[in-house]
Amino acid sequence: MKITNEQVNNMYETMLKIRKFETRAKDLFAEGKVGGFVHLYIGEEAVATGACANLRDDDYITSTHRGHGHIIAKGGDLKYMMAELFQKETGYCKGKGGSMHIADATKGILGANGIVGAGHNIAVGAGLAIQYKKTDQVCVCFFGDASTNQSTFHEALNLASVWKLPVIFVCENNGYGISVSQARHQAITDVSVRASAYNMPGVTVDGNDVFAVYEAVGEAVSKARKGQGPTLIECKTYRWRGHFEGDPTVYRPEGELETWIKKDPIPRMEKYMLENGVITKAEIDKENADVDNMIKEAEVFAEESSMPALESALEDVYTDIVEEGRVR
Amino acid sequence: MRKMTYAEGIREGMSVKMRENPDVFLFGEDVGKFGGCFGVSAGMFDEFGEMRVRDTPISEGVIIGAAVGSAACGLRPIAELMFVDFLTVGMDQLVNQAAKMRYMFGGKIKLPMVVRLPGGGGASAAAQHSQSLEAWVAHVPGLKVVYPSNAQDAYGLMLTAIEDDNPVMFMENKILYSVKSDVEDEVKPISFGKAAIKKEGTDVTVVSYGRQVLDSMKAADILSKDGISVEVIDIRTLFPLDKETIFKSLSKTHKVVIVSEEAKRGAFTGEIASLIAEECFFELDAPVRRIGALNTPVPFATNLENYVLPNEQDIVIAVKSLL
Questions:
Q1: What is the ipTM of this complex?
Q2: Which residue of B has its CA nearest to A112?
Q3: pLDDT in tens, A139-180
Q4: Long-range contact list for A272-278, CB < 8 A, 24+ apart?
Q5: Which of B17, B129, B236, B289 is catalytic?
């Protein structure tokens, strides 16, 4: 694995940004400052971080309802993300999308998505556009284990394979489709075996090992850039929180969460960095403090921003038509 | 002036834009060498090649989904579904993705995509290949809906649809594909939201679109022999809808019949009727009349299908009932 210390440090910062953003979002939801449906990525940080560390700004990603981590890892701005959670006009979606719909076209982020499995087909569309324009960009499609039971998974992987599109399908197998465990929603344990049905490479990696993810996705990205088609990569991981905030997680066997907390990807990364002289303890403390400040700044920005003007509800349905309002 | 079929009008509209702009391409089931199930893209594969007239697997979800994704990444896809009936398979990609992405992303993305949707009955194709589902898509904010009735409009509306930066549902009628009509030597793009007055009249306004424009014209001819003067309006686009032309006609005739081939319950004709009731009520001298298909699936047997679908006689009867 070729990786510079600078890359490792950047990945570490991304991991912290995700963890701290999500932890703060959890608290803000509990305080009632953030509403709607919020699906947190805590515990899965290594997947988005390791995958996106291989990407350029002009590469694309599609994301899911649990999208904050992907967006941060692809370069999304914490301020605009937080402002969107706060429903503010300065948010990524001007308060029209919320947590599940954050997008940033300038960073190739084709959106989080509220429909499970919808990103598969959109990612294939991005891959088609790349192939059509004959560039060496790629699209990484993030999705969960349960979405591989949707028809879109089959349609997308089939088309991506037969057309050799530059799409990397990254499955975050966190063991659950909402409350239903993988053993109860599909008769396989490794999602990667499904790749064989499409004659594409399928690999399973430890999704809590950021370097394992980085390496597997890196290889797939480099193939895709050379026109060698798609890859399915399954990253085994676990979400620490419920499906959404407010989920009492009664479906989890006792001790399961604790087992996974012991596999926390962040201390694992810190251990590697300390042992390999990439970082010192003091630098870890400084990085943590810096990211804490970024989160604080994002929150202040969100708090101080205005709610969207009512007329804005009528805009952006079309590029050229403003819908009619109502008189109250 | 020349004669062209409706299918040729659609093909020319697509081909003109594809010659102009390399980002425009057509894809769908059997659109390539085969030329499309109804021959609409015949010859385009030879002119533009397999990357720009591209056969897909039978996967309506990813056809629409890939149109969304490629449009979001800067292309201008034209996706063909073989039958509008198959829209059910790709409905999430259309309704939850195509129609909502721009809005939910705060206007920071645009989706210049056309979805071609051949529909309508009259071919003994039975209930899964004969529907008129335009009300489904017209109901969804974020989509534009076009339904040409003749070759010139098909051509000119296609030029506009491909230029549009929003998802455009291009409804096509299978029976009309082979119908020839006059096309100007130089076809200009036809703005959305501009109805066409196909025939001026003073007694009753008949509002329709698609194949029923032809039925309405036939009915107007029959009625003229009885001295009844019918004004026929082809709305051409369901959204945006040209209410003004309809209301202006009503201010002259004060009576209206609205016709489509949809099953009448929940049909788009109901939307037009309600707009008239809400915004133009005092112009009416008689109740609004709506004509649609009967509220059944479209049957296979010709006599049953003819019974279920509306025709010019239904329009004649409705117009006479208002006088």
A1: 0.95
A2: B105
A3: 999 999 999 999 999 999 999 999 999 999 999 999 999 999
A4: A272/A211, A273/A8, A273/A12, A278/A5, A278/A8, A278/A9
A5: B129
